[in-house]
Design a protein that fits this description.
CATH class: Alpha Beta
Number of strands: 8
Shape: globular
Order of helices and strands: EHEHHEEHEHEHEHEHHHH
Distance between the termini: 35 Å
Structural class: alpha/beta
Largest sheet: 8 strands, mixed
Strand order of the largest sheet: 3-4-2-5-1-6-7-8
Helix content: 25-40%
Number of helices: 11
Low-confidence stretches: 248-252
CATH architecture: 3-Layer(aba) Sandwich
CATH topology: Rossmann fold
Number of domains: 1
Length: 256
């Protein structure tokens, strides 16, 4: 099995890149795809903060230091999401060596169908190391001109490094008149907008609970959008979501 390494990138922080990464992974699992999220922001990691800072035996920083293997650093969150967290400890900052990231990620080749790499935001040399290690990139932005302009820079840099940008995820959409619309953004970036994620209070509520919104609120507007995006990425029929997963949700009263 050849693993697809999909980086979730953004031109700036605060656009919801980590939220997208975690919920894509959760949604793809419902289509039977084995998926792992790697928190590749070695400076300001957010995946473990979003999912709850559980005690783990090792982190991506330990892998980079040569003290652990990637397969030893995977933990399964109660939601079912498999994660390789980065360390949030200040003592590990000196070991934030992005040049070693590609070799670390290669240890997951063959383990999963898709490895979702939650990228360092921006286009500096650290982010570029992630772009080079990825097979494909999804760029997350919000419908504001400054964010979209930063997304354009991200696309240009990624493509200059030879990595394919497969599309745009437009996040936190409220449908206001002052927002850039999908057509404008697609034309500006010269890339398809393959998903539009609405602003959803359930995302904030799920973050407080340290669970993906897709797991806690599967019928919410954002979860439905993540489901469609996951079906697109997995090449799956949205109507044929994994039956066992749906049955579990019904048993626990999450899906009706």
């Amino acid at each position: 099995m050849r693993t697809n390494f999909l980086a979730i990138a953004s031109g700036k922080g605060g656009v919801g890149k980590t939220t997208v990464s975690i919920n894509i992974a959760n949604a793809m699992a419902s289509y039977g795809r084995k998926t792992v999220v790697v928190d590749a922001d070695l400076i300001n990691p957010n995946v473990s903060l979003y999912l709850g800072s559980e005690k783990v035996n090792s982190t991506l920083h330990d892998v980079i230091k040569g003290k652990a293997k990637m397969l030893e650093s995977i933990y399964t969150h109660p939601s079912g999401v498999k994660v390789v967290p980065a360390s949030i400890s200040l003592s590990d900052l000196p070991y934030s060596d992005y040049s070693s990231l590609g070799r670390a990620l290669s240890q997951l080749d063959g383990y999963a169908d898709t490895v979702i790499v939650d990228s360092h935001p921006g286009i500096n040399s650290d982010a570029q190391e992630i772009f080079k290690a990825a097979d494909e990139i999804l760029v997350v932005t919000v419908p504001e001109l400054s964010a979209v302009t930063d997304a354009m820079k991200t696309i240009r840099i990624a493509e200059s490094l030879g990595t394919s940008v497969i599309g745009i995820v437009l996040n936190r959409v409220e449908g206001k008149r002052y927002e850039m619309n999908t057509e404008e953004i697609g034309a500006f970036l010269e890339k398809p907008v393959i998903a539009t994620i609405p602003e959803d209070k359930n995302i904030k509520k799920s973050a407080v609970e340290n669970f993906p919104v897709y797991h806690l609120y599967p019928n919410s507007a954002s979860s439905q959008a993540f489901r469609k995006l996951a079906a697109t990425l997995a090449g799956a029929d949205e109507e044929k979501e994994d039956g066992f997963f749906k049955d579990l949700l019904k048993i626990f009263g999450i899906l009706r």
